[in-house]
Write a structure and sequence with these properties.
The complex is a heterotrimer of chains A (about 325), B (about 280) and C (about 260). Chain A has about 325 residues and is α/β, with parallel strands linked by helices. In chain A, about 30% of the residues lie in helices and about 20% in strands. The chains are: A alpha/beta (about 325), B mainly alpha (about 280), C alpha/beta (about 260).
């Protein structure tokens, strides 16, 4: 198992009404290639800020300290027509890259070894700088910036509200084809053919009709399937789902979670699943990171977090969960004086 | 950053604010600087500007002080422009809110009336109204408002149609609030911002309409107006063009100032909204 | 035998969409006793939220009867309906959307007291303070704007507004769905306290069977505008008989704590 990205001492501050609000404080964690990691927390925990920071989508007004190092293959030269990143990564070389889209607020651009490792990381052994490729593949930092992950190509992002992330006046087939045209350099006919395949993969009934449908003609669950198709279209390494099922009802949520699980395993994608629902996270993820007030409370294997939480806050989250086996509150209240 | 400072940061808004401030000062200072009747004879007729420093902008055909007339004219222009625009906004907002909130037959009737007013050119409407009722300051204000309320009414109605579907309106009904209170206390204040954004255009148009009415001799005869001054100067346009040019320039600057300041306000509030 | 607090029979609401007529609510009947919680559960689009709006007369039904407090609720209109609304209140899912964006805490609590003449102008501030304390908030919150306070505080204010007129029934439309789990537990306990002390009945609309099982006495599971199954909340959730009930239970995420 190798690391896909490593976050070190990440602090994100928003300016609001003259004051500064730290949304994330000193976060360090590693995401392994191919793993399913869930970030859970309540509102204000900073879990969505983490998703945006990893995707390089933070607003320009946010101040970012610390570093996010990616371990991606350098992309081919600009303008290449061949699909680059869908090919399997045979021998990943290392580039240490800060999130590229917004160069200015990143404090340090990695030039040498990754920063000190934390004991919580299961990837310790992999991170010691001695991987395939060696020093000759290491690029000077100025160039390394150009190899940063590209939103849409290397990172797929699924938002909570599919109505807001899809263009309301464009047929959904075209929206998916656009991703393929832009990132894989496909011609329009091929892009549309691949879009149809993708709609089939996300199991939309009648993909031929769906290709020409507008978002408002689809149900909430169907729209989220389209958003997932667009997110995975360019064959990203990392799929980020930020509360992607929170606006859906229980049955549709279960279907979407099953779909995400299947797509991630088929394509060998890494999954970052952001959720407020600890039970849902435990069903889908291998590891769970618990966030509170912008800090990482604890991280561990899903089974360990659920059955043997180390932190009192995690225990309180588990106790507050109302499962199908919970004692009814009314009877609890009647029982206690 | 506070809104006022952000407003003054934009160059257009700053220019507009400076012009409006100058205009307001003129209007307020007129009775102090030029006490007495501005329409009284002050010197020889048709004195060109910058000849006699007691009459810096010269005199008109009847020997009246042009500078005094200009200052007093600013009072009329601003008063009529602001009053007419305010009246148009109030009428428009109330009718738009009623139509949008009540729906059904009330909406249908009110909007057909709005259509009727909108199909008649507003200037013709004002002209006809003043000709029938007779020229006076109040009548001119009503005449201008009559042609200007339809825009605010349509914007207010569209806004109200979307706001009345929101949960807080349902919440107001659930606690048993009277429909009129819901319309005017819950919905209208939230529908106002886009309606108020129209105000700069309406004030500018009202000032121009007032000038045009006065130009045609339908202004209040007891008051100096810029439109009236231009009309006066028209007869001696070849020999004394300044008599038309001076009030004409004042008019252009005023409309420009109102428009720029209004745009600045809209811009600032738009930024604030997108931030929140 | 006395008649139930609320009884609904044959309630039907049609919606026209793209030339087709769809029944959002199709011949639905149920009843709620004083001090009882009836949950309406079901997938989105099953008509459970339309039921809430029909019962509150925010939308008018196409057919059916609603009997509330021994009165034909659908026959009421104008001032009579407005005065009866004091007995039948609602709490919305999103407490931010449920209040006028310009309102303060004091104003949203003042409105019901003023409209129903519950307290004179001079006595209202005391009454508002008491309401805030009743829902576990401090009276110094009163002058604050609604958008300044936290989501949990807002939902407590919404409950305070709902109980201001001493209602006998409160419709809770996904009232805890948008809250953090820790806050959700506190709000549910508050609702149970109020029910025990004031004998308030709840019509509790939720898609979350875990919450339904925890708070409701009885549940009606909706599917496509009809009641698919109804019964004791615990019995139905533990062993659903209808296909939709079984699908909902199967789809609910489980915590397997060792």
């Amino acid at each position: 198992m190798t690391a896909l990205l490593s976050i070190r001492d990440l602090t994100v501050t928003y300016r609001r009404d003259g004051g500064e609000v730290a949304a994330l404080k000193d976060i360090s964690l590693d995401i392994a290639a191919g793993e399913r990691l869930a970030i859970i927390g309540e509102s204000g925990s900073g879990k969505s800020t983490l998703a945006l920071a990893v995707a390089g989508l933070l607003p320009a007004s946010a101040r970012v300290d610390g570093r996010i190092d990616w371990f991606l293959r350098p992309p081919p030269p600009l303008g290449a027509k061949a699909p680059p990143s869908v090919l399997p990564d045979i021998s990943p070389s290392r580039g240490e890259i800060a999130p590229s889209s917004r160069p200015s607020p990143i404090s340090r651009i990695a030039g040498g070894e990754p920063a000190a490792k934390l004991p919580i990381s299961p990837l310790e052994g992999e991170m010691s700088g001695r991987t395939e490729g060696g020093a000759k593949d290491r690029r000077p930092s100025a160039i390394a910036t150009d190899y940063g992950p590209l939103g849409g190509r290397d990172i797929g992002f699924v938002f909570q509200d599919p109505s807001a992330s899809l263009d309301p006046v464009m047929p959904v087939g075209k929206q998916i084809a656009e991703v393929l045209y832009t990132h894989l350099g496909l011609g329009w006919p091929q892009a549309f053919a691949k879009a149809r395949t993708l709609l089939e993969r996300v199991r939309l009934p009648d993909p031929d009709t769906a290709l020409h449908a507008f978002p408002h003609q689809l149900s909430g669950g169907q729209k989220q399937r389209v958003a997932i198709a667009a997110a995975i279209a360019a064959g990203p390494k990392l799929l980020i789902a930020d509360e992607a099922t929170s606006a859906l009802d229980t049955i549709v949520q279960a279907e979407i979670v099953a779909l995400i699980r299947q797509l991630v395993s088929e394509d060998g994608m890494t999954l970052l699943f952001i959720s407020h629902d600890i039970a849902l996270a435990a069903e889908l993820a291998e590891r769970i990171a618990v966030f509170r007030h912008g800090r990482l409370v604890e991280i561990g294997a899903a089974r360990q977090i659920i059955s043997a939480p180390r932190h009192a806050y995690t225990r309180s989250l588990l106790d507050a969960h109302l499962g199908l086996d919970a004692e009814p509150l009314s009877r609890q209240a009647e029982a206690s004086p | 950053m506070n809104p006022l400072r952000r407003f003054l940061r934009t160059p257009e808004a700053l220019a507009g604010a400076v012009i409006l401030a100058a205009l307001l000062t003129m209007a307020l200072a007129a009775p102090l600087l030029f006490p007495g009747d501005p329409q009284a004879i002050a010197g020889p007729a048709l004195l060109p500007p910058f000849q006699d420093w007691s009459l810096p902008l010269g005199t008109d055909r009847l020997g009246r002080d042009v500078l005094a007339e200009l200052f007093h004219g600013a009072r009329t222009s601003l008063a009529v422009g602001l009053a007419a625009a305010a009246a148009a906004l109030v009428i428009g907002a109330v009718i738009g809110t009623l139509a949008g909130f009540a729906g059904g037959l009330v909406d249908e009737v009110l909007m057909r009336i709005t259509d009727a007013f909108q199909t008649v050119p507003s200037f013709l409407l004002a002209l006809a109204f003043v000709s029938v009722v007779g020229p006076s300051l109040g009548v001119v204000v009503v005449a201008i408002a009559l042609g200007a309320w339809t825009g605010p009414a349509r914007v207010a109605r569209a806004e109200v149609l979307s706001i009345r579907e929101r949960d807080f309106v349902a919440g107001a009904r659930v606690i048993g609030m009277h429909p009129l209170e819901i319309a005017f206390r819950e919905i209208l204040p939230n529908a106002l911002p886009p309606v108020l954004a129209l105000s700069s255009v309406i004030v500018a148009a009202a000032i121009l309409t007032e000038a045009a009415l006065s130009f045609l001799g339908l202004g209040d005869p007891n008051r100096v107006t810029w439109g009236g001054m231009i009309a006066e100067g028209r007869t001696v346009l070849r020999t004394a063009p300044f008599l038309s040019i001076v009030p004409g320039l004042a008019l252009v600057l005023t409309v420009l100032g109102v428009y720029l300041a209004g745009e600045g306000v809209v811009e600032t509030t738009a930024v604030r909204r997108s931030l929140s | 035998m006395s008649s139930p607090l609320l009884s609904v029979s044959g309630l039907t609401k049609w919606y026209r969409r793209g030339g087709k007529t769809i029944a959002a609510v199709d011949n639905v009947s149920f009843h709620i006793e004083t001090g009882e919680t009836l949950a309406l559960a079901g997938p989105s689009g099953s008509g459970k939220s339309t039921i809430a709006r029909l019962v509150l007369r925010l939308v008018e039904p196409d057919a059916g009867r609603i009997q509330f407090d021994g009165e034909d609720f659908l026959a009421l209109g104008g001032a009579a309906l407005r005065s009866r609304r004091a007995r039948l209140q609602m709490v919305f899912q999103d407490p931010l959307a449920a209040f006028n964006p310009r309102a303060t805490v004091a104003r949203v609590l003042d409105d019901p007291l003023r409209i129903h003449g519950i307290a004179s102008r001079l006595k209202r501030p005391r009454r508002i303070a008491a309401l805030l304390e009743r829902v576990g908030l401090t009276p110094d919150l009163a002058p604050r704007a609604i958008h300044e306070i936290s989501g949990g505080q807002r939902q407590r204010v919404a409950i305070a507004r709902a109980i201001a007129t001493k209602p006998s029934l409160i419709v809770l439309d996904e009232a805890v769905s948008a809250l953090d789990v820790s806050v959700r537990g506190q709000i549910l306990h508050l609702l149970l306290d109020l029910q025990r002390e004031e004998r308030i009945a709840y019509l509790f609309i939720s898609h979350d069977l875990g919450v339904v099982r925890a708070i409701a006495h009885r549940v009606a599971i909706f599917d496509a505008g009809r009641i698919a199954e109804t019964g004791d909340a615990r019995t139905v959730v533990d062993a659903p008989q209808s296909a939709i009930g079984q699908a909902l239970v199967a789809a609910t995420p489980r915590l397997n704590r060792a």
